[in-house]
Design goal:
single chain, 175 residues, mainly beta, Jelly Rolls, 5-stranded antiparallel sheet
Length: 175
């Protein structure tokens, strides 16, 4: 006796589409107002290369959480990375700068990010930015490691998320 279950291709296709639609809706983050990556040269991230993001912010009088996202490969030679962040825009009288330090791998060399095939992506909190005026803000990132060219960093990105309230600690130095 053959106990194989017969499948209806139309029902299967409909169920698959419904599943994909649910996944797409869950993946959408309505609070994120900006999320973008910049690819870096395959030979590495030069100390002279500043990664620039021009972000148009639609709201004013709002706190935004800033996340930094890094995509690295097994060619990256360190456990951690140091970054310099500066940003300016409407209503900010001076360019604000921050020093950021993130751990990409544990002591055994296992990457903390998610990924496969030798490419890993990790998201790190970078603090809260208070936006008092809608408009275009410029955010710049540099690496602060001593290497002239830093291998193994494929892409660097930022994600700006509207916050309902509160903020996380953020140390800033005005320049």
């Amino acid at each position: 006796m053959n106990s194989r279950r017969k499948t209806n291709p139309t029902a299967f296709g409909r169920n698959l589409l419904q599943l994909l639609a649910v996944c797409a809706l869950c993946a959408c983050d309505k609070q994120a107002v900006y999320h973008n990556f910049h690819s870096l040269p395959s030979e590495g991230w030069s100390k002279q290369d500043t990664v620039v993001f021009d972000v148009t912010v639609p709201d004013s009088q709002t706190n935004y959480r800033l996340d930094i996202e890094i995509r690295n490969t097994n060619r990256y030679p360190y456990q951690d990375i140091g970054l310099g962040l500066c940003y300016c825009g409407p209503g900010i009288s001076q360019t604000t700068t921050d020093s950021l330090h993130y751990i990409l791998a544990d002591r055994q060399g296992h990457w903390k990010g998610e990924g496969w095939g030798g490419l890993y992506q990790t998201r790190f909190p970078a603090g809260t930015i208070r936006i008092d005026s809608a408009g275009t803000y410029r955010l710049k990132l540099i690496h602060t490691l001593p290497n002239e060219t830093l291998p193994g960093i494929n892409d660097i990105g930022i994600r700006l998320v509207r916050q309902a309230g509160g903020s996380y600690p953020h140390q800033s130095a005005e320049k």
